[in-house]
Specification:
This protein is of the alpha+beta class. It has helices at residues 3-8, 56-72, 89-92; strands spanning 16-19, 23-27, 35-41, 83-85, 101-105. The chain has one domain: HIT-like (HIT family, subunit A, 2-Layer Sandwich), CATH 3.30.428.10. Bound molecules: adenosine monophosphate (AMP).
């Protein structure tokens, strides 16, 4: 069981900002920006590269939820802005094998990423 499955199960605490039938969003314990939220499906998909065609609606829901959270936090405007990131595999920087979208905001983010 991954640490994110334990958060979904309520076995370990998290600073939850959104929950619905399909997904959970909580603040990253090691934030890389003033706002750093992880949006995860309750269903365990290890990583985006292992998502299946049947996950299409769920993946869309995760992205729409990220946008809704950005709205709620008043980040969804040209002055603020935000970035969504999905790390996949070793070179992608993945450390938890449970799909998650990083929502980063609150500072100017560099491009290309490190
Ligand atoms: P990644 O490196 O893309 O797999 O991202 C995993 C993220 O999960 C990292 O940013 C970690 O800081 C974060 N993380 C790990 N454990 C927890 C936890 N218990 N609660 C919140 N965030 C966590």
């Amino acid at each position: 069981m991954t640490i994110f499955e334990k958060i979904v199960a309520g076995e370990i605490p998290a600073d939850i900002v959104h929950e619905d039938d399909l997904c959970l969003a909580f603040r990253d314990v090691n934030p890389q920006a003033p706002t750093h939220i992880l949006i995860i499906p309750k269903k365990c998909i290890a990583r985006i590269g292992e998502a299946l065609p049947e996950d299409q609606a769920l993946l869309g829901h995760l992205l729409l939820t990220a946008g809704k959270i950005a709205d709620d936090l008043e980040l969804n405007n040209p002055e603020q802005g935000f970035r969504l990131v999905i790390n996949n595999g070793k070179n992608g920087g993945e450390s938890v094998p449970h799909l998650h979208i990083h929502l980063l905001a609150g500072r100017s983010l560099e491009w290309p990423p490190g």
